[in-house]
Specification:
0% strand; 135 residues; mainly alpha
């Protein structure tokens, strides 16, 4: 499996999210991480154990409405769930055997961005030459 592509997907995700102004960016990402928690519900392979994970991710997403740190935690939790599914469950995309592994590589990229406070990467690029950091 190519591990570079999932990293690029994570970077593109962060760039696209940078187009959304704060505080909407944080709230939208909280919704995204909550949705990611339910990604395996329709056949993840862990049966009823999928439900406590969804509940945990819903709580983390709720806390993420006001905290980038919780959104980052949510992406790292999803990374662990991706790895569990890659090793013992069903892939996130049934037609792509390594899709859960790819997701497990992509998610920490997004988590790192979240732990930095979800800064606007497009604004950072614009002001890089002037020595200022934008939020």
């Amino acid at each position: 499996m190519n591990l570079v592509s999932p990293v690029i997907v994570g970077i593109v995700y962060c760039l696209l999210m940078s187009l959304i102004e704060e505080p909407h960016r944080r709230r939208f990402n909280a919704i995204m991480v909550g949705g990611a928690g339910a990604a395996y519900l329709s056949g993840g392979g862990f049966g009823p154990w999928e439900l406590p994970f969804v509940a945990l991710m819903a709580y983390v997403a709720y806390r993420g409405l006001e905290s980038w740190t919780f959104i980052g935690i949510g992406w790292l939790l999803h990374t662990a769930w991706d790895m569990a599914h890659h090793l013992k469950g069903n892939p996130i995309l049934p037609f792509s055997h390594d899709s859960s592994l790819g997701c497990a590589v992509c998610d920490p990229v997004i988590a790192l961005w979240c732990f930095r406070g979800g800064p606007s990467l497009t604004a950072l690029v614009r002001v890089a030459g002037r020595g200022r950091v934008a939020r």
